[in-house]
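Please decode residue identities from the backbone states below.
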């Protein structure tokens, strides 16, 4: 049986383990991708932080992936071996009416690759990935594959901004200057926000936020109250708060920071049970919206904007690592210093 190298999740208190596992074979409506680049996602970090996390023991994580088609299964048309592709991590079936209408995000049989759940298939911290052909998007020739791998976090940022129902002239506060927060920063400016203020505790990330379109930045460790500092900078409390951290109590904090009647979008994924301060929310009267299911079309739009030079997420890539270097890089991201987006390049 043919094998490949992969990094598997063993347990919360242990590093990812490099090993050889069976190389996947394409099923009907599937292709096999030779992985060119896979970003390390904050969801993977959160899902593996505790023994009761959702990551599957023995599973291969990784869902921000680009590569070249290596094998093509039966029932697949329109693709050829060696085509450069980005994979929308939806895990659609490829054959239902929604998939045939190019709406894989609405597939009723969806199983998302990346081992985030006991019933979820393996992901792309490996040399090869099996995926549905209906989830593929061609990567334009002028977009490097490692940059195209950023489409997934960009899609989450875009979805967050769309969920916020952003209006021209809005004042936006983005909490967290990781890849999702930076992506929300890009698209907040793209869709007409007058001021986009990014809050974080790491100055390296705040410098990157300014480079990616933030009009102002706030180091939360250096001010008494982020809300008061936002008002000092912009003249009013935030119309929109996008929470891109995904830690307990961050939703309550986002509600506190927003103006009365403001909009709060949670794009950070909190993997732990959390409490909700109903009395504070009652006083603030916010509209609260989660942001999870981006569409195939949104991912396609992002790749087209990259190709046209309208958005450039390249500065987010701070580190490139091999599969052999992945376990150490993955562990280091739990207490980041100068890292933002770390891309695995098998």
């Amino acid at each position: 049986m043919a094998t490949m190298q992969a990094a598997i999740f063993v347990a919360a208190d242990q590093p990812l383990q490099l090993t050889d596992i069976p190389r996947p074979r394409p099923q009907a409506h599937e292709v096999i991708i030779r992985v060119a680049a896979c970003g390390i996602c904050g969801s993977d970090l959160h899902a593996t932080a505790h023994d009761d996390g959702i990551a599957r023991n023995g599973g291969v994580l990784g869902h921000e992936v680009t590569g070249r088609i290596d094998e093509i299964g039966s029932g697949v048309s329109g693709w050829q071996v060696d085509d450069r592709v980005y994979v929308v991590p939806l895990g659609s079936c490829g054959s239902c009416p929604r998939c045939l209408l190019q709406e894989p995000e609405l597939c009723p049989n969806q199983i998302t690759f990346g081992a985030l759940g006991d019933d979820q298939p393996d992901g792309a911290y490996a040399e090869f990935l099996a995926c549905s052909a209906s989830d593929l998007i061609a990567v334009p020739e002028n977009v490097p594959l490692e940059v195209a791998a950023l489409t997934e976090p960009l899609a989450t940022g875009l979805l967050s901004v769309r969920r916020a129902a952003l209006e021209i002239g809005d004042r936006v506060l983005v909490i967290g200057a990781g890849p999702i927060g930076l992506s929300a920063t890009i698209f907040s400016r793209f869709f007409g926000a007058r001021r986009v203020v990014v809050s974080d505790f790491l100055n390296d990330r705040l410098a990157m936020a300014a480079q990616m379109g933030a009009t102002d930045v706030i180091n939360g460790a250096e001010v008494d109250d982020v809300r008061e500092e936002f008002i000092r900078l912009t003249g009013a409390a935030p119309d929109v708060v996008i929470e891109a951290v995904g830690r307990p109590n961050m939703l309550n904090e986002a509600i506190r920071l927003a103006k009365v009647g403001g909009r709060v979008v949670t794009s950070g994924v909190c993997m732990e049970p959390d409490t909700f301060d109903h009395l504070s929310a009652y006083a603030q009267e916010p509209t609260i919206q989660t942001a999870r299911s981006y569409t195939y079309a949104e991912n396609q739009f992002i790749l087209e904007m990259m190709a046209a030079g309208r958005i450039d997420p390249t500065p987010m890539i701070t580190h490139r690592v091999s599969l052999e270097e992945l376990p150490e890089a993955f562990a280091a991201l739990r207490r980041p210093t100068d890292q933002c987006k770390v891309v695995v390049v098998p």
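Observation: The first helix runs from residue 42 to 47.
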